[in-house]
Amino acid sequence: MSGILYIVPTPIGNLGDITARAAETLSAVDFIAAEDTRVTVRLLNHLGIKKQLVSYYEHNAVESGEKILSRLIAGESCAIVSDAGTPAVSDPGEALVKSCAEMGIEVISLPGPCAAIAALAVSGLSTQRFTFEGFLSVKRKSRFDHLKSLRAETRTMIFYEAPHKLLTTLGDMLSELGDRRISISRELTKLHEETIRTTLSQALIHFNDNPPRGEFVLVVEGAAGSDIVNEKTASPAEAAERVDELRSGGMKLMEAVRLVSEETGISKNELYSVCVSTRE
Ligand code: SAM
Fold it and tell me: Which of 19, 32, 41 is nearest to 92 (CA)?
């Protein structure tokens, strides 16, 4: 019988955030797959655990993944950890979990630290519905396409960002999404932890005066009724233009039709027909 892959979240700054179950699992498994074995050794030393570590990161994921899978198939158990937070969330792990799922190998996910969820919870913005957007691309076009596709997104949006790109990102968000509320969490769980609840324009001013340092999560308010086509006044032609706008941002036709149909109340069939007929 094959072994089990355990997804083990690790602290994002405060070692006290390791859970008792995470520590037990790290000490019970046969081996640990780690994003950076040097980082994980420090955590294991802190916990007093000695365990075989294998490296598993973006650039060796195929080769290392195959070795890990064959050990799992042979019956060994493995814990996957990243440098900080939850593996497979903007971190190595997604491909390994997918392979396990395809091969019928059991995967157990331990709940634990995740910067996105910690930042969302403290944001003061709506937590009813949210989307995780990860890192915006460093490539200008992809970054703008990504942001354009989010213009009508009504759910709260969570982004990860590096300090040296923060000002550019805030500027791009302001130009593409308009001036929205944003909650910026910096250095969560660490000594200089802070959460600034402000607007995109004020955040730009703030970080121009105070150069960004540390790790950041940006939690951006979703589009309000006034930011999107108005339900009562949008004509099918206006709605079709909105579909075109979303498509130019890279969204697929049916997805754009679904979204604009929700925004405007115009049925998907009607909107689709207008889009197709006016663009033939
Ligand atoms: N898988 C991790 C998780 O679950 O949080 C995220 C890994 S991703 C490579 C690293 C990004 O997460 C950072 O660039 C930053 O945006 C965010 N992050 C990680 N730790 C953080 C912290 N202590 N405070 C704020 N943001 C953090």
Answer: 32
**How many alpha carbons fall within 13 Å on the CB side of residue 3?**
19
Measure 119 CA to ligand 1 centroid, in angstroms.
10
Distance CA 149, CA 144 (A): 8
CATH class of the structural domain 4-113: alpha beta
92-105 average pLDDT score:
98
| Structure-token match 């000594």, residue found | 191
Q: In terms of CATH, what superfamily is 116-225?
A: Tetrapyrrole methylase, C-terminal domain (3.30.950.10)
Residue having the nearest C-alpha atom to atom 20 of ligand 1: 12
User: Ligand 1 test: best mutation among 216, 218, 220, most atoms within 8 Å of CB?
Assistant: 216
**Boundaries of every domain in the chain:** 4-113, 116-225, 229-279
* 232 has pLDDT over 80: no
Reported pTM: 0.82
Q: Give 56-96 pLDDT, tens digit per residue.
A: 999 999 999 999 999 999 999 999 999 999 999 999 999 99
pLDDT greater than 60 at residue 231: no
Q: What is the pLDDT of residue 248?
A: 83
Give 158's contacts (C-beta < 8 A, 6+ positions apart): 116, 119, 120, 130, 131, 132, 133, 217, 218, 219, 220
